[in-house]
Structures are given as C-alpha cells and as structure tokens.
Amino acid sequence: MPIKVSVVIPVYNPGKYIEDCIASLLRQSLPDDEYEAIFVNDGSTDETPGRLDRLAAEYPHMHVIHQEGSGWSGKPRNVGIEAARGEFIQFVDNDDWLGDEALERMYDYGVENGADVIVGKMAGKGRPVPLELFRKNRPHANVENAPLIDSLTPHKMFRKAFLDKHNLRYMEGRRRLEDHVFVTEAYLRAENVAVLSDYLCYYHVKREDASNAGFQRFDPVGYFKNLREALDVVEELTEPGPLRDRLFRRWLRNEMVERMRGQRLLKLPEDYRQELFDEIHKVVVERFGPGVAAGMQPTQQIVAGLIAANRLADVEEFARWESGIKPSGALESLGWQDGGLSIGFTAEYRSGGEPIAFRAEGDKDLLVPPLPKTSLDAIALLGADTSAPLGKSKVDLVVRERATAAEFFQPVELTREKVAVAGREGYFRQVLRATAEVDPLSAANGAGLDAGIWDVLIRISSCGWTKETRLGSVRGEEAGRGRRAAVVGSPARLVLPYWTDPHGNLSLDVGQKTNRISYEFAGLTAADVTVTTDPGRIAVALPFHVQGESEAALKLTSASAGRSVDLTATLTARGADKAELSAGLPLGELADGQWRLELTVPSTGGGKPVALPLALDVSASGGAVVKPLAAAAADLAAKDPARRKPAARPAEPTLLRRAAGKLRRALKK
Description:
The chain has 18 helices and 32 strands. By secondary structure, it is α+β, with helices and mostly antiparallel strands. Helix 7 runs antiparallel to helix 8 and helix 12 crosses helix 14.
C-alpha cells in the first residue's frame, strides 16, 4: 500500500511533552499502512532517544533517525523530507499534537482540490493562532484571495513532489524564522493552497515551562537579519505594487509594530527595549515604502509612523495609553428559537473604566491619542492616518471549547451607534449592538458542537484594536429569564447555557459535562405534574426548549424495596421554553409504593441520569399522586418509625445542608 502521508517531527529534549504528540499519531484514523511518522532526534540528551527507539520497535510505521545536534529545527526537518516516502509531508513539533482524523481529512481535501499545500485548522493552547484564515473552508486559496500570510508556522501538509520540484528546504543552523522563509516561498510557488477549517487538525501548545523556542528572548540583530531573508523571498517572487506591500505588511504588523505596543513593550527592560527598537527602525526605513503602513489600522499606523520617525519616547507613551484599553460587553437577551440560541449583546472599548471617546471634525471621526502635536505632525508627514474608521468596527461572537481551545465564529447581525459624551461637545463613543445565533447542530463551521464546555466570548475589532472578553457577567433581566436548557437534533444534543462561578460569564454545557442540569429542576413542584390512572400516564412540565419531539428515559426507584422500573419517555415541545416529559405508568407493578423519579436525556457525549425533586406515590388500589421529594420523605418516615430522624437532628435541615453542599460543588465545575 503506498504511503499517503509522512509526518516529520524534529525532536530535541521534549521530555514528557512528546507523549501527547506520540499518542495523537497512534490514534490517527488513516490505516497504519497508509502513513508513517519520522521522528528526527536532533541530539537529545534526555530520555527521549530511548523512548523513540522503543516506539519504533513496537510500531512498524513509527521511525526514528538519530543525528548530532544541529542547533535548530531546519536540519532535522530536511532530514525528514529526504527520508519521507509519503505523497504528502506533514510537519509537527514535538510538543504539539494532531486531531485524530487530521491526516485523513487533510490528505483527502488536498487530493480533492489538487493542492500543493494544505493548511488545517489550528487551536492555540496558550499560543496565538490565525483566526480570520479559518472562518471558512477555502478549497482554492492563494496570497491574493485569502489571509494565508497570517499563518507562517510550518505545521502544514505539503505535496512532496512539489517540494522536490522547487528544491524547497529549510535553512539550517541556529537561526530564527526559517519557517517564514520556507512557508512564504511555498505559498508563492504553489499551484493551489487548500485551507480546511471545519475540523480541528492541529493543536499548537505552550509548554508549562514556557521553553518552546518561540517564547525565548531573542537577539534583535540576528532576528531581524533572518527576517530580511523572508522579505527577500517576497521581493524575488512578486513585483513591486499592492500585493508586495500587503505581504510585507504582515511582518511590519506582527514582528515590529505589535512588539512596540501596550504591555508587550512596557514589560521589556529599558536597555533591551532600546536595542529592539533600533533594529526595527532600521528595517522599516530600509525596506518598507509608504504603501506598506498605509494599509494598516490607524493605531498601527501611528506606531509605525513613530518608529519610522525614530521616536521611542512617544512609542512608549502611546503604549502606556493603549495598555489601559479594554473590551467590554453586556448580555442584553438570551433565548432559544427553533433550536438555535439567540444572544443579544452590546460591546465597546473602555479606558480607565470609561468608554473611549472619539472626536468629530467635519465628516471625519478622529482618534484622540495622548501624543504631542509635534509627534502627530511628524507621523502625518510620513503618511500615517489618525482618523478612526468606525464604519468598519465589528464584533464577533466566538464559542471556544475549554479543554481543546477549539473555537468557531457564529453568525452576527450588527448595528453601530454613536452616543454623545455628556459634557464634552464634539465627542462621542461608539456602541456596537449585535445579535448572534448559536445553532448547536452547525456551530462548528457547519458541524455540530462536540460534547464539552463551550465558553462564549466576544471579539471587538476597531481602529487597530482586536481584543476579546467573556460575555455574561454584565447582563439584563431578560437574559436571565431566557436561560434554558435545550434538547436539539437527532441524535439529541442536550445543551445547557449557564453562568460560571464566580464571574457569572455565559458558557454552554453540551452533553452534561457538569452537574448543573440538576438545578434546572430545583423549582419543580407537584403542580408541574399530572398523573392519570386511566390509562396510567405521568406528564411533567420541564423548563426545557425541545425541537419537536425527543426520546428520553424515566427510571422509577422504590423508596423502600430498592427495586426499579425503567420507562421509555417522550419530550415534547410546549412553547419556546417549556417541554412536557410523558411516559406510560405500569400501575400494576407500582401499586402500594413510593417511587423516586430519575430522568435521562440521551445526548451527544452520553446522557447521565438526573434526579427530579418529586416522588410518585401509588396506592394499593392503583391511585397515584406526585409530591415534592421532601414531603414524600416525611410521609415515608411517618409510616416507618425506623426512618425517623432524632429530634436533635431534624431531617429537613440536614437535607437542605446536603443540597446546598451539592450546589456549591456543582457551581465550582
């Protein structure tokens, strides 16, 4: 069987962090004879070489190559390329891991679309990853029609024949940004690049000891010398003009301007800050024309202009102002509609606890940064635009799975509103009003949300700031009234919106990953239940949103005999936020007994039984009534003196204390 994919993993002293990588490779959905993993041990001095030898001895498709330390990842990746037998090569770092179906999905997607490069959706575990690139699948992408240049890490799949045709190899030795040079050239030479966004393929992980190479302080002189090599590739393979400027903008924005902003700059020691600024200034004046900075957001243009004007003190002052700017949001409404969760909210930026103010000047809206006029004049001469393009402000709503960091954008309807600032003529704030729809069956780029805890965030983009914050801690009464569990789809997904503890943010529990569903039923009383004896049926009104009709299970457990009866039940919609649980009652089996009620809703990720605070009391003659659990327990104790509690320890306070303890434990989850 031909090898479809060769996975190349450069290895140097990963310690325990390689175990997740190995496990993910062994879990791949591709058959073992259709892929291989090539670990290139680059002179490791820990226990890893022995671990890899044992792995290769146990699994024929796992291989290890040992070599003397080369100082960086370039040479081991090149060695892996030469050894690879696969049609495609996927690069993985030794402290990262792959989704279980990543190789199969990326390979099929690449073949289907004739791609030389396949970029799989990434999640950052403590590390930043591209966001805009993965909004949707892009079967035919290039540097002109997609933000490919935002993703220059090597963790992609490349057609081996394509690499060999262009002799594409990594620069070797102890150096920085060798992946930028390699990936940039691949993008510019590829016939097609395919971006797969509907499956989480790659987990980019920050180690607990923060010893990943990308987190180490670097020598500015060497770093920006290596950065110039990536710029050289762009100059070689593009013509002067808008495309080249747009590609160059990626390095100006990410590697230069963003290093000179906010706390990222202010946390640096002053001597290192000066050294870094000096090298950035050199690259900016040597390599970038006015068209490069002109396409950036106003705040980025200001910093770029100050760098070009060699004004570090003003860059620092601007950074102090920006470091106080925070995103904020208020949850205005929440409710289920036709199986989707509608979320209404407002969002804006604040500074020093107050909304950021803009100034109106004629038909222009202006930023008001704390910079002297001489600095503003200097950057204006360099072409920097300090107007505020508020018509382009936007807010996204994102759901992020807590365990994996997988995140997905949700559809948003947006309006922008200018609100006058009291006591400041000509000044106003911008409020973004939005409604988002989270459909649990399609919220993951067309696929359903997996079982897990999904945190809800908003991400505000305006004037060059893109920051995110949790949603829900500030909320209106309508949002509280609309918070309901829902059963949607087939197979069913049980979805519970809830407020986190202690901050009160909005999260979604899909598949009962917490115990909070129990507290949805805390207010049930006998008035919520109807029982008939001809024919015998029980119906319970539940605070659920149900799409149409869904199956459930109801278990009745005898309070005295210890036996149980399992019933098939049905959940039926009774309005937007009500459902009816109904089941037939075999009264002959239940006669002369008291029964506790336990509900199980089948759900993606499994369904767990949930006790209802009700008891079914069936007489010997077949009559049946439902009582609150506490009242039923008191009746049972009255019939059976052995069940009575001592007077000094009454039953009801004890039950309340236990219930309170369970509630506290559940809220901590």
